[in-house]
């Protein structure tokens, strides 16, 4: 009477899903945009300034958060008292 094959429908559904996944992978963007740092209202790093825990400063476009109270050095070298990516 009828030539009904239920497995044929599953095969078609699987093929369609596989094609959709392949298209999504091929057409998806490959580059990820970098996150920008919002430095508005954050002062630039300066030497010989008292720094308190939690204080934010910027240096060369990077935002830093003070981890230990201290007076900033005149050398400007990075140390463990600051954490980038605040």
Offer a quick outline of the entry.
By secondary structure, the protein is of the alpha+beta class. It contains one helix and six strands.
Overview of this protein structure:
The chain is α+β, with helices and mostly antiparallel strands and 86 residues long. It has a domain at 43-84: Seminal Fluid Protein  PDC-109 (Domain B) (Ribbon). Helix content is 26%, strand content 21%. The strands form 2 sheets. The protein has a 4-stranded mixed beta sheet with strand order 1-3-4-6, with no helix packed on it. A two-stranded antiparallel ribbon has the order 2-5. The longest helix has 22 residues, at 6-27. The relative contact order is 0.14.
Give the integer mean of the pLDDT values.
Answer: 74
Largest sheet report: 4 strands, mixed
Distance between the termini: 72 Å
Shape assignment: rod-shaped
| Strand and helix order | HEEEEEE
Strand content: 15-25%
Give the count of helical stretches: 1
Key words describing this protein structure:
86 residues, alpha+beta, Seminal Fluid Protein  PDC-109 (Domain B), four-stranded mixed β-sheet, two-stranded antiparallel sheet, 1 helix, 21% strand
What is the secondary structure topology, with strand pairs?
Elements: H1 6-27, E1 43-44, E2 50-51, E3 56-59, E4 62-66, E5 70-71, E6 82-84
Parallel strand pairs: 1-3
Antiparallel strand pairs: 2-5, 3-4, 4-6
């Amino acid at each position: 009477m009828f030539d009904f094959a239920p497995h044929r429908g599953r095969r078609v559904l699987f093929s369609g899903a596989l094609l959709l996944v392949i298209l999504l992978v091929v057409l998806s963007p490959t580059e990820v945009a970098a996150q920008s740092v919002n430095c508005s209202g954050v002062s630039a790093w300066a030497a010989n300034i008292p720094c308190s825990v939690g204080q934010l400063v910027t240096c060369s476009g990077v935002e830093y958060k003070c981890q230990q109270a201290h007076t900033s050095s005149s050398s400007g070298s990075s140390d463990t008292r600051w954490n980038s990516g605040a």
